[in-house]
Structures are given as structure tokens and as C-alpha cells.
Amino acid sequence: HRHLLGIEGLSAQDIQTLLDHSDRYVDLNRAVEKKQSSLRGRTIINLFFENSTRTRTSFELAGKRLGGDVINMSVATSSVKKGETLIDTAITLNAMHPDLLVVRHQDSGAVALLAQKVGCSVINGGDGSHEHPTQALLDALTIRRRKGRLEGLSVAICGDILHSRVARSNIHLLNTMGARVRLIAPPTLLPAFAERLGVEVYHDMRKGLTDVDIVMMLRLQMERFHGSFVPSTREYFHFYGLDHEKLAFAKPDALIMHPGPMNRGIEIDTEVADDIHRSVIHEQVEMGVAVRMACLELLAQHKPNWRHSTPAGA
Ligand code: CP
């Protein structure tokens, strides 16, 4: 693969290779001396059209720990604000001969479109409600290290599925790796195609959480409602917020996950989020650096063809 645009289309072997490669970086990241040299001389540009704390920072750390040169292009202070289009911006950056572009964009499909226009490898750092592949990989690495496997586990993904690229990438990955996926959400926050994804659908948290191994909570993405009905956050927490009472339906050793950023008191009770035995939310962030090192390193094996860049109108 030249790009990493989504989990859909990756084989179980591809995913296993990425996870095995990531695993090797976990110990390195815990060491005092972290610097490696496999990306020496390579240039990585982070191009984030949407806000990010975890993804942008961990891609920057990942690139630097592998010895690469990392540029963070700040969209807020760029010529995007003067009206330059996504594609013109990409072609401009491509002319500076980067080896990898990491792109986050608010529109589903925007990163794949951009990837067709540049000669270097592109990693999707999240596009609209479509995919966030490195998030699903870091979630899988977290689960695999804690539970020793993915196959046969029962995973509940709960909350605002409709707007969630994290949910989509996780559904593809978990299905491919042989886990059983349950979606728990109000009918208004489930995409119409949910039933076709090979998952079980629940509208009741207590029923859906019964005997699951993993509880994956999602942020209620208020900014993506665009004028449609916004639920009352108090009512949402009452029915769909993860608290100790609802969590008691899951297996006693179930892991609590959240991709972040969290809305404490809306989709997750603060005590559950901070449960020192079962919450792995900070471990997910830690795994994020290792996964992004693996993705950068594997994609950097492709030789870029910067002349490939095609005109914006083409
Ligand atoms: N989980 C995640 O993508 O977080 P950021 O939006 O902070 O990158």
C-alpha cells in the first residue's frame, strides 16, 4: 500500500503486520533515549484542517523519534484562509518534496481526493465521519496487549455512531480480526447502513453491555449536528452515559475505552473515565505514538514520485 486512507480494504495480515510492528515501539517510547534513524532525511508534513491534540502531536513525536523532519502546517495561519483550495494547497506542498503527508479534514473523502493529486504517501488523520485508521489501530493494539487477542472478543461501541469516523474504522478492523461488534446508540445517532456492517445493534445500554469484554465510548460530536436535533446532554447521560451502574452489566474485567477528547458527564461519568483498573484511555494515547511510528516507517518504504502531482482542476 502507498497510502493509509482507511481500514476498509486492509486484510487481517496487513493489520497484524502493522500491530506487530507497532508493538516493537512501545518499549522504545518508554526508554529515556528514544531517537531512531529510520526516517532520517525524510520529510513529513502534518496538514490538519480540523482541530486535534492527540493525532497531530503523536504524529509529530512519531516522525521525530524516527529521525524524520516534521513540519506542522498551521491551517489557521496559512493561505487556506485567503481562499486557496484543498487541492491547490496539497499540490503546493507536494512541490516541496515531502515524503509523507498526514491529513485531517472535516469532509469525508477529502483525504482520498488529495492522495490522488500528490506523489508522496498520504495518511488519513481523520476525514469527516468516514475513517480514522490510526485510531482503530491504536485501539486494537491497546486491546491486544491487555487481552492477548482480538479474535472472539465482544466489543460494544457506544454513543454517537452516526458522526464517528472512529466507529467506522473500528468496525472494519474488529470485523476483519474476528471480534464481535455491538453498536449501542439511540436510533437518531445510528447510520442507516448500521445493520449491513455485520454488527449487532442495541438501543438499550444495559442489554447491549451485557457480558462484553470491551466498552468503547464515543464523544457526542455537537459540532457535526449542523442544525439537526441536538439531544439534551442531561437526558443523553441518563440513557447513554457510561456510569458504574451500566458498566456493571459488562464482564467484571471489561476495559473502558474512549478515543478522546472526552465530554465528562455527557457520554462518560468522570469516575468511570478515571477507573484505575479498567480505564485504558491514557494507554490508548500511549499506543498512538507507537502505531504512528509503525505507519510512517512502513509507508516511507515507498519512493515518492513528486512529478505525479496533477493540476487542481484535473
Ligand atoms: N482521538 C483523536 O483523534 O483525538 P484528537 O482529535 O485530539 O486528535
TrEMBL record:
Heterododecamer (2C3:3R2) of six catalytic PyrB chains organized as two trimers (C3), and six regulatory PyrI chains organized as three dimers (R2). L-aspartate binds at K82, R165, R219. Keywords: Pyrimidine biosynthesis, Transferase. It comes from Ferrovibrio terrae. PROSITE patterns: CARBAMOYLTRANSFERASE. Reversibly catalyzes the transfer of the carbamoyl group from carbamoyl phosphate (CP) to the N(epsilon) atom of ornithine (ORN) to produce L-citrulline. Catalyzes the condensation of carbamoyl phosphate and aspartate to form carbamoyl aspartate and inorganic phosphate, the committed step in the de novo pyrimidine nucleotide biosynthesis pathway. GO terms for biological process: 'de novo' pyrimidine nucleobase biosynthetic process; 'de novo' UMP biosynthetic process; amino acid metabolic process. One of its GO terms (cellular component) is cytosol. InterPro entries: Asp/Orn_carbamoyltranf_P-bd, Asp/Orn_carbamoylTrfase, Asp/Orn_carbamoylTrfase_sf, Asp_carbamoyltransf, Asp_carbamoyltransf_Asp/Orn-bd. The keyword Transferase applies. Residues 2-144 form the Aspartate/ornithine carbamoyltransferase carbamoyl-P binding domain. The keyword Transferase applies. Carbamoyl phosphate binds at R54, T55, R104, H132, Q135, G260, P261. Pfam families: OTCace, OTCace_N. It catalyses: carbamoyl phosphate + L-aspartate = N-carbamoyl-L-aspartate + phosphate + H(+). This is Aspartate carbamoyltransferase. The lineage of its organism: Bacteria, Pseudomonadati, Pseudomonadota, Alphaproteobacteria, Rhodospirillales. Residues 151-298 form the Aspartate/ornithine carbamoyltransferase Asp/Orn-binding domain. Its EC number is 2.1.3.2.
